[in-house]
Specification:
The protein is mostly beta strands. The protein is built from 1 helix and 5 strands, in the order ββββαβ. The chain has a 5-stranded antiparallel β-sheet. A hairpin with a 2-residue loop joins strand 2 and strand 3.
Length: 69
């Protein structure tokens, strides 16, 4: 079950899946409401949650805290 966006915490890392894309995101800052500044841990690119969800949530949408295995 996906974590609600308002439960995200700055400094934590989350596994994000949407529309077939899988990313590992670190939350850098809370910008406003449900929008956060995030860093992709694989590419080091910085963007916002709103940019990731701009085209909607797919059937595979999942957002969970990332646990190293």
């Amino acid at each position: 079950m996906a974590i609600a966006l308002d439960n995200l915490r700055v400094g934590r890392v989350y596994a994000f899946t949407n529309m077939g894309e899988k990313r590992k995101l670190e939350i850098l800052a809370r910008l406003s409401g449900d929008n956060f500044k995030v860093k992709d841990m694989d590419t080091t690119e910085v963007y916002t949650i709103e940019e990731l969800l701009r085209w909607g949530r797919g059937k595979d949408y999942e957002l969970d805290e990332w646990m190293e295995e």
